[in-house]
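Follow-up to my post from last week.
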Amino acid sequence: MGKIIVCHCEDVTLADLEEAFEHGFRDLESLKRYTGFATGLCQGKCCTAHVARFLGALKGGDDVVADPPRTRPLLQPTPVAHFAGDLPGSGEPGPQEAP
Amino acid sequence: MRDRAELVIIGGGVIGLSLAYHLARLGFTDVLVLEQGYLCFGASGRNGGGVRQQWSTEENIRLMKESVRMFRRLATETGYNIWFRQGGYLFLARDAQTAAQLEQNVRLQNRCGVGTRLIQPRQAARIVPGLATAGIEVCAHNPSDGVLFPFPVVWGMARVAQDLGVTIETFTRVSRIEAQGRQIVKVITDRGAIATHRVVNAAGAWSWQIARMLGVELPNKPYRHEILICEPVKPFLDPMVSDLSDGTYFSQTMRGEICGGVSDPHEPSSMETGTSFEFLRRMSRSLVRILPRLANLKILRAWAGFYDETPDGQPILGRVDSIDGFIQLNGFGGHGFMLAPVIGKLAAEWILRKVDHPIFSRYDLGRFARGELQKETFVIG
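User reply:
Got it. Predicted complex:
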């Protein structure tokens, strides 16, 4: 069988998941940290369901593993500049003028 | 799960695992490590990976020199690549008082054999391309400080300890500890009870809860610290950069991401791990002020972890007065990860071979009652 990619952003394959499982990383949070799935540009939106399903299978037949990794902000990658400006009406100085 | 152990370590973070790792390497493996979540669940999996020798007390400088030496060997010893990169640490001072403190620190660091130099903002801009020099009084740079990837440090120490015979139980929560008089008899978890006379409290932000199970009150308080990571870009940033005016710190990981956080002086003590919009704003404004070219970088993710803080910014190590065999290794604030190798080694030698080290009396819990606080002023983030 060819290479099966489960996380496109970080290029994580099914074989990577199986190897991680062999090494004792057998929950989604640990698999995420060991393989890096869900840490790329999509932040898990594309891959978490696949990994949950494969992990379920590796654990012996459950279709899906419940309890997905904690979803963290941001929803979409967002430039630093978008957060660095003034809040309208806040009266705060912009970052360049800060003391 | 096993029902007895010579020594139970509560907390499978880097401090508890470093102790287990060093005990095992000295031949003592009748050790059970209890972790409430997965490995890297607590602060050990949530920090920025900074490793610095720039401190304001001789003790911390010397301990950190040893930790750096140990981190350099750790990948070879464990078989896990910890991505330790000694790109230096650059501190920015924006006022005369902070500049004076840096000057004093640098003198002390140099006396301890750490090669920190005070440099002018223009020189710093050669180390950090694009640094906005306006408003910076002076900088302190030590090229042998660095950053690492925390996860494989934790996994590597756990792996070796397990291979040598230590037991690590994850997803196992301690609910009670039973004692008879001064003697510990049993640790009760949600997965069973363990008979033991010796317990190490390496539970980080949860340490005060563990201690209270034995009637011991720790002054430690957990504080949330938020951190973010930006999309990866071509490597351009050697050092960890830290602005002392607001506690901002950031570095570039080996994957190319910019990763860092900033202090919030108004953050109340809590067990909250959510992230806030306010943090994203404060951190973004600080990043742009320090390095304007970061403005167009996209933020991917933010998360939070705990600083387990003591009143004097130093850890609590060693025995307590009221209970025998109850050892504290907690209260490390924001610098437990970097101290973990040396603390684990010294604690293992102390527990197993009775090799004393001044830290186990100087940093004991009793110092607060005695009024002998050990102030470390150089706490960042």
